[in-house]
Amino acid sequence: MALVTVPLAIWSGVLTVAQMCAVVFVQGLCLVFFELAEHAALPMVVPPSQLATAFATNEARSRGVTLAGPPLGGFLFTVDRALPFLVDGLSYLLAAVSILFLRRDLRPATEGPAEPLWTSALTGLRYVWRNRFIRASLLLIAVSNLVFQALILVLVVHAGDHGATPARIGLMLGLYSAGGLLGALIAARVHSRLSLRVVLIGTYWIWSVLLPLFALTSSPWQIGAIGALTAFVGPIWNVMILTYAGITVPNELLGRVMSAANTLTWGVMPIASLGAGVLLTAVGPVGAIGALSAIMLTTAIAATISPTIRHSNPLPGTDDAVPDQTPPALDPATRPPG
């Protein structure tokens, strides 16, 4: 409903920046809660043997929409500047109606008094801290998020400094995103063929090799092609981690654990943007690429020598069992008050 207020305000001639900020805030807030509920509900709808395929499908859907959304929004804006907001709002309404037809009971198996939000967040953080594998994985994700969030800005400036037009930069980023979509399409197959530790460690070494290549070219097409290769392996990593969490984390805690994970891994985004600006000012685009490559190489080495990552076993559906690093259930003495 928040989005629908925008076209109404545009047609009435009363749209303000304050209203747009409020709509963006509501959209972002709702997105967080929806994604947490989605991740917790999926293992209740899909059997464990199909969980990787389900996460890969969701990953492909998300990346496909991200790739197709901006051009579609631009086309709708040329027809009527209120139309993108109206179509987006109607799409959310259609999605809400579709969810009503989901017949599976999504209530947790264990029922108890609802926790306040802050105690739920602490429960998720406590679980993450006590699970060595999840803790190590989230640290790796946080570093990669920081690097790639900064890298996008650096690449845009790098291409622009060598005369790339906005249209070519847009095509460069589109090619970059297309690699992620292709990776999402094969992620489920890779899950059944490669072990968890091979994906976790191998992904960072692939990125460590590819990132320095950005400094060797200023062509938007070549930058986009290298970016597509880096984006290609990202969904495979995501599907592995989400499947691990969906199988090993108790369902009643999964939403809280994902909330803690998002807090840690998304919290680096503003720092990354600030860091990119500092690097660009201090050492320029090529120097910034070198610094980000060094961070990625250090992370790859850390992942390789980490006993927690090296001793992790493949997920079910491959060759071995999931590593038993799940913390014991919280006992009444340590459970936060509800």
Write structural notes for this entry.
The chain has 338 residues and is an all-alpha fold. The protein has one domain (5-101, 119-310): Up-down Bundle (Growth Hormone, Chain: A). The protein has helices spanning 5-12, 17-45, 51-79, 83-99, 117-130, 132-161, 166-191, 196-210, 220-248, 251-266, 269-305, 307-310.
Main sheet summary: none
Tally of domains? 1
Number of helices: 12
CATH architecture: Up-down Bundle
Order of helices and strands: HHHHHHHHHHHH
- Classified by CATH, the class is Mainly Alpha
The termini sit apart by 32 Å
Q: What is the CATH T-level topology? A: Growth Hormone, Chain: A
CATH superfamily: MFS general substrate transporter like domains
Biased composition (Pro residues): 325-338
Membrane topology: Multi-pass membrane protein
Protein name: MFS family permease
Subcellular location: Cell membrane
Summary keywords:
338 residues, globular, Growth Hormone, Chain: A, mainly alpha
How are the SSEs placed, and which strands pair?
Layout: H1 5-12, H2 17-45, H3 51-79, H4 83-99, H5 117-130, H6 132-161, H7 166-191, H8 196-210, H9 220-248, H10 251-266, H11 269-305, H12 307-310
Question: What's this model, at a glance?
Answer:
The protein is mostly helical and 338 residues long. The protein has helices at 5-12, 17-45, 51-79, 83-99, 117-130, 132-161, 166-191, 196-210, 220-248, 251-266, 269-305, 307-310. Helix 6 packs parallel to helix 10 (251-266).
